[in-house]
Design a protein that fits this description.
single chain; alpha/beta; Rossmann fold; 6-stranded parallel β-sheet; 3-stranded parallel β-sheet; globular; binds guanine
Length: about 280
């Protein structure tokens, strides 16, 4: 019998704790905590994500500053906005929603976010610190997964962890976090040979490939913990993850659903990172 990891329930609990800490920060320092969110263009999914992030800020008492720039915004306009936010003391965290429209240099724009306001944890400095297991702002999705594993009491030390996907946003930081937690980590990707066998050896399997129902039952070991980062549409247009949930669930000890698994935790960790960034500044 598998246990469903309820990301919504974990999120609710953590957001209550964050709200208490935000209140305490305001009470003791007499000022708000601020998060700036920048959305450029009309990407539908990004609009939904940004709306949810702003709503979540309200829920925990973080002041949000939303900036909506048109698809036609120039590189200079976006860079100038980020530089202004970097200087603004009311802003503790800056998030530039990805992907940016074609023609904009995402790497350059993100590099303008000061390390201590990089609440996405995407900067080279924060990623480097994560690699070296030093305190830093950690990318929200993998950090949210670690929080859920911890709250479920799932031990990682000495376990075989397999991460499928090597993106800078999820796969790479996920692998580092698992390694820092003493798991033995393998990262698979599109050029990996023997991916089925490797996945089948996983005690902890994290799927972050962006392909609907990519992880099938024959790729999962009996008793594995399966974490699904995917957010795709299946052939009927229904929301689904990277894992064939129905086919896989009965082999798992724990599994995350889509939706309601990893997704809510990503936003919760953004709130958490914003709180940490504010507290560090004082
Ligand atoms: N696009 C998809 N996920 C993310 C995220 O976690 N942060 C940002 N900034 N953009 C994203």
């Amino acid at each position: 019998m598998y246990k469903l990891i309820d990301g919504k329930a974990h999120s609710r609990c953590l957001r209550e704790q964050i709200a208490d800490e935000v209140k305490e920060y305001k009470r003791s320092l007499g000022r708000d905590i601020g998060l700036a969110v920048v959305l450029v263009g009309n990407d539908g999914a990004s609009q939904v994500y940004v709306r949810n992030k702003i709503k979540a800020c309200e829920e925990v008492g973080i002041k949000s500053f939303a900036y909506y720039l048109p698809e036609t915004a120039s590189e200079q306009e976006v860079e100038e906005l980020v530089c202004e936010l970097a200087e603004n003391d009311a802003v503790h965290g800056i998030l530039v929603q990805l992907p940016l429209p074609k023609g904009l240099d995402a790497e350059k724009i993100l590099s303008l976010i000061p390390v201590d306001k990089d609440v996405d944890g995407f900067s080279e400095s924060n990623m480097g610190s994560l690699c070296m297991n030093k305190p830093c702002l950690v990318a929200c999705t993998p950090n949210g997964i670690m929080k859920m594993l911890e709250r479920e009491g799932i031990q990682l030390k000495g376990k075989n962890a397999v991460v499928v996907g090597r993106s800078n946003i999820v796969g790479k930081p996920m692998a580092m976090l698992l390694l820092n937690a003493d798991a033995t980590v393998t990262v698979c990707h599109s050029k990996t040979v023997g991916i089925k066998e490797i996945c089948s050896s996983a005690d902890i399997l994290v799927a972050a490939v962006g392909r609907a129902k990519f992880i099938t039952s024959d790729m999962v070991k009996e008793g594995a913990v399966v974490i699904d980062v995917g957010m795709n549409r299946d052939e009927d247009g229904k929301l689904c993850g990277d894992v064939d949930f129905e086919g896989v669930k009965d082999k798992c000890s724990f599994i995350t659903p889509v939706p309601g698994g990893v997704g809510p935790m990503t936003i919760t960790m953004l709130l958490y990172n914003t709180l940490i960034a504010a507290k560090r500044r004082g």
